[in-house]
Design goal:
- The protein is of the alpha/beta class and about 180 residues long.
- The protein contains six helices and five strands, in the order E-H-E-H-E-E-E-H-H-H-H.
- It has helices spanning about 10-15, 35-45, 90-100, 110-120, 125-135, 145-155; strands at about 1-5, 25-30, 55, 70-75, 80-85.
- It has a five-stranded mixed beta sheet.
- Strand 4 and strand 5 (about 80-85) form a beta hairpin.
- The longest helix is centred in the first third of the chain and has 15 residues, at about 35-45.
- The protein starts with a strand and ends in an 18-residue tail after the last helix.
- InterPro entries: DUF2204 (IPR018700).
- It comes from Gemmobacter caeni.
- One of its GO terms (molecular function) is transferase activity.
Length: about 180
Amino acid sequence: MIEFSVYGGTVMVIEYEARKMTRDVDVVIHRGASFLRAIVDEIAREKEWDPGWLNDGVKGFISSNPQFQEMFTIEEDGCGLRVLRPTPEYLFAMKAMAMRGLDSENSSDIEDIRFLVKSIGIKSFDEAADIVASFYPKSQISPKTTFGLQELLENILGPESVVQRETGHEDRYEG
């Protein structure tokens, strides 16, 4: 059985139809890595694709408290494929931790975070920060993540969503 989890743009495209494409497929392979790598290499050769089209660079953003949902499982004659994806909250936390291109409106991370805020129904910075903190220890949550989420949520939900600035709550989220 090959088992892996997909992340990032792949989930945004396939599960949410939030965008039209992604440049690569971010995965973490749980079982059957050598067999899957051989298949991926063959596909890259046949299609003349970049050999890194399936990559595990997302490992740097994996939580020690992951939450997954099954996308699908196919089993036949003792062989199979099981594909998992992060829950919307886990994906939101991962995207917040990565937060690439905060100063650019063209960042897919920023657009994905906006989509997930609305999809999950996040109503405030405190709620967003609590989601991130449920997956990552305080020591890993950078000021970039904290301030980036504050700015994004203020733009998405309005200034009232970040009133925690006056309540002192920000201390528990800064890295």
